Structures are given as C-alpha cells and as structure tokens.
C-alpha cells in the first residue's frame, strides 16, 4: 500500500512539474529559406492566379473546384509564412495585412469547397484588396498596384 501510494505521488509530481508535449517549444526553431519575393514567385502569385482564374470560370468541374480550393489553401498558408522569421517587416501593418491575406484566401478555400461561385468571386475581391493594401506601402512605395519595379 505504502509503495503504491509513493508511486502514485511520484507520478503526480512528475506530471505536474513537466509541461505537456503540446506546451513545449520545439527543440529547433523555424528556419526560413525563402524571402518575401521568392514566396511571391513560388507560392503567392501562382496560387492567386489559379484562384482568380477559377473565379472567372463559370463552368468549373469537380477537378476545377478542387484545384481552386487547394490553391486557396496554398495562398492562405503563404500568408502565414509572411508572418514568420526574417520576412516580417514590422509587427503592426505587416502582420495585419498578412493576416488579411490569410483570411481572404481561407474564404476562397471555403467557397471552393462549397462550390459557391458567388462566394469565390467575393473572396477574390477580398484577396485583391489584401494584396493592394500590402503592396502599396511595402512593395510599391505608395504607388498604385501594378508590376513590381525592376
């Protein structure tokens, strides 16, 4: 009995003093590989182009809706990547605008999942707004959105 009580107390003490695995920080931190421009070239531009193309196609088949959903997810997750490591320009507007892209792309993914063309079109409007609001101060130095300077 005494041994069982001692074991139980020991297990409780260890459980209370050791944080759960979910609460522990990873042993190694995130290491970014791509910079912001590379993310745009490899993920953001192709994914947004695919979502915009899907929203302008009035006769999407099942494969088209799946592609639109998948590319919207890529776009949303790339917005998350803009908020990681050395890509972060500031903790104010940059984070707010990156989150706006995540939210708009998530709307597009949900619209594509539901095969809702009107909702997808509205989501692409939100994506365009998020892009314009971020490009103007960070990429275009206040100019209207267009091709990036060479």
Structure overview:
- The chain is an all-alpha fold and 150 residues long.
- It has one domain: Up-down Bundle (Four Helix Bundle (Hemerythrin (Met), subunit A)), CATH 1.20.120.
- The chain is 67% helix and 0% strand.
- The chain has 5 helices and no strands.
- Helix 4 packs antiparallel against helix 5.
- The chain is globular, with a radius of gyration of 22 Å.
- Mean pLDDT is 83; it is low at 5-26.
Q: What order do the helices and strands come in, and which of them pair?
A:
Elements: H1 2-17, H2 36-56, H3 62-81, H4 93-113, H5 117-138
SSE string: HHHHH
Q: CATH homologous superfamily - what is it?
A: Cytochrome c/b562
Q: How helix-rich are the residues, as a percent range?
A: 55-70%
In the CATH hierarchy, the architecture is Up-down Bundle
Q: What is the CATH first-level class name? A: Mainly Alpha
How many strands in all? 0
The CATH topology, please? Four Helix Bundle (Hemerythrin (Met), subunit A)
Q: What is the arithmetic mean of pLDDT?
A: 83
Domain count, please report it. 1
Distance between the termini: 78 Å
How many helical elements?
5
| Uncertain stretches of 5 or more adjacent residues | 5-26
Largest sheet: none
Which percent band covers the strand fraction?
A: under 5%
Overall shape: it is globular
**Overall SS class:** mainly alpha
Rg over CA atoms, rounded to whole Å, is 22 Å
